[in-house]
Amino acid sequence: MAQYMPAFSQHMKELEAAGGKREFLEIGRLAGRFPAASSTLDGTSAEISVWCSNDYLGMGQHPSVLTAIKEIIDEYGAGAGGSRNIGGTNHYHVLLEKELADLHGKEDALLFTSGYTANDGALSVLAGRLKDCVVFSDELNHASIIDGLRHSRAEKHIFRHNDCAHLEELIAAVDPDRPKMIVMESVYSMAGDIAPLAEIVDIAKRYEAMTFLDEVHAVGMYGPQGAGIAASLGMADEFTVIMGTLAKGFGTTGGYIAGPSVLIDAVRGLSRSFIFTTALPPAFVAGSLAAVRHLRNSDTERDKLRDNAQSMHRLLKEHGIPFISDRSHIVSVLVGDDTTCKKASDILLERHGIYVQSINAPSVRVGEEILRIAPGAVHSAEEVRKFVEALDGIWTELELPRAQNPEQASAARV
């Protein structure tokens, strides 16, 4: 066994030399006080403020969610006890699937243990079991989409990010009799920009293509009752399958797809990542159900999220700090250098108690390193202002380039 270790050691040395070694900050989110969290800095316990969490609305701390989880743990225990096929289906799994189908106006829904396995498991079946299917996928689609399409073994064409002219060029070149599928995200996780959904739907109709829409960074946060970007445009019924997560806007864990019953049944019966894994714990499913139901009846969290994001966009523009897109709540400040990006992140944490993770390759392209900031519903307007002031000082200290006018500040490459 020992003779194999040097190869991995060499891989890690090369990764570290390239600046790609991953380091993890241990934090303890403080229940009822988030975005406050405990951490250890320079060997000393400290309280920090988290600004890069995907729990965008703070639902992971919401009293109704915590109460539901505690009650169901007392009733059913910790785990599901098996896969959904073998002893792991609890009544709360069924209730949540019905709730999610109703949220998206679809016939049926199916839970997965994560958003990653939902994309991987669903696409491997939907693209893989449809004979001679050809798939058209946005170049910035998430790794889980990429893996799902690889596992499907379907023919795949990559269109330039949000470029509908390129998408149509590719799809028009394919035999019109072949089954087709277009796969995209609504809100892109690193850039924070939004797909041109109306144009994509138009292309899908003209070329008779199925559509698979990943709404991971939109469900809970956009649209009526938090149903997502497609719903906000009145277009949810135009997408064949909608995929979402419970781990971001809804604050818990798990993923799902919603769509026509026949497709959901096919995934339920054929998806390896669904069949061969332990089901989500009933307590967390109950917590997710509480979160979904709350957000279907409350705009308070969505309004606060929107206000904080718009305020940060405005302040960054005033200070000439460049960011990629002002279309969503994901504020990706563009640094463009791995070492400098990490330095900015370190200063924010060590001097200001602000935690924002620097993002480098492979999550973004080399030379497009960012500070991925998530001003959530849990932050106050004053905290947003102080955050930008701290970032402004760092921008000066590190001699980073500034935008010359407010329009250039959000000079998206997308």
Descriptive report:
The chain is α/β, with parallel strands linked by helices. The chain has a domain at 63-296: 3-Layer(aba) Sandwich (Aspartate Aminotransferase, domain 2). It is built from 15 helices and 14 strands. The chain has helices at residues 5-17, 63-76, 91-104, 115-126, 143-152, 164-172, 197-206, 229-232, 261-270, 272-275, 282-296, 300-319, 338-352, 381-397, 406-409; strands at residues 27-29, 36-41, 44-50, 108-112, 134-138, 155-159, 180-185, 210-214, 241-245, 255-259, 331-334, 354-355, 358-359, 370-373. The strands form three sheets. It has a seven-stranded mixed beta sheet with strand order 4-10-9-8-7-5-6, sandwiched between helices. A four-stranded mixed beta sheet has the order 1-2-3-12, covered by helices on one side. Strands 11-14-13 form a three-stranded antiparallel beta sheet. Helix 4 (115-126) packs across helix 9, helix 12 (300-319) packs parallel to helix 14 and helix 13 (338-352) packs across helix 14. 48% of the residues are buried. Its EC number is 2.3.1.47. It catalyses: 6-carboxyhexanoyl-[ACP] + L-alanine + H(+) = (8S)-8-amino-7-oxononanoate + holo-[ACP] + CO2. InterPro entries: 4pyrrol_synth_NH2levulA_synth (IPR010961), Aminotransferase_I/II_large (IPR004839), AON_synthase_class-II (IPR050087), PyrdxlP-dep_Trfase (IPR015424), PyrdxlP-dep_Trfase_major (IPR015421), PyrdxlP-dep_Trfase_small (IPR015422). Residues 50-391 form the Aminotransferase class I/classII large domain.
